[in-house]
Specification:
Layout lengths: L1 E4 L3 E5 L5 H8 L2 H6 L8 H19 L3 E6 L4 E9 L6 E7 L8 H15 L6 E5 L4 H9 L2 E7 L8 E6 L1
Parallel strand pairs: 5-6
Antiparallel strand pairs: 1-2, 2-3, 3-4, 4-5, 6-8, 7-8
Helix pairs in contact: 1-3
Length: about 170
């Protein structure tokens, strides 16, 4: 189901047919380095990841991470909103296949997600978190109007992350 359309992209709910794409994305070097190893090694793992994560979120929160596709339907990444257990704020998240990076897709899709969050979902505050070493994501977050607020930890075992919020 299409959720958002931009000039070059369609953001739609993930489907089990996206298993090969998710398997590839979640095992790319940048994803593993900056987001983490989700333990997705097979198509079945990819389906379980989608079912327990984004698809569950669609039902529970009316939003989640979406397949971000070119207008011809080719998936290039994921972008959407995440509601983490124990956190008040919703955060925008994105990840793109390396071969589709540096084309402006992250800025285009994340900007559309922020507009959707405000105008359709009526969310008052959307934040973002990223690793201090993830310079590409930091640049995207600044381009979409978010500003560094402080360092945080998602839990006592996590690395410190940068929290970005609306200006």
């Amino acid at each position: 189901m299409d959720v958002i359309r931009t000039g070059r992209l369609v953001l739609r709910q993930l489907e089990f047919e996206d298993a090969d794409f998710i398997l590839e994305l979640l095992n790319e070097a940048a994803f593993l380095q900056f987001i983490g190893d989700k333990g997705v090694r097979t198509q079945a793992d990819a389906c379980a990841y989608m079912s327990k994560g984004p698809m569950d979120s669609y039902g529970r929160h009316k939003f989640g991470l979406y397949a971000t596709c070119l207008l011809d339907g080719t998936p290039v990444g994921i972008c959407g909103l995440v509601k983490r257990e124990g956190w008040v704020d919703v955060d925008v998240g994105f990840a793109f296949l390396a071969r589709h990076c540096s084309k402006g897709y992250a800025v285009e899709s994340a900007s559309a997600i922020l507009a959707h969050a405000a105008n359709v979902l009526d969310l008052q505050r959307v934040v973002a978190i990223t690793s201090p070493e993830n310079f590409g994501s930091i640049a995207v977050l600044e381009k979409i109007g978010l500003k560094y607020e402080r360092m945080i930890r998602l839990n006592e075992l996590s690395h410190e992350l940068m929290l970005f919020g609306p200006t």
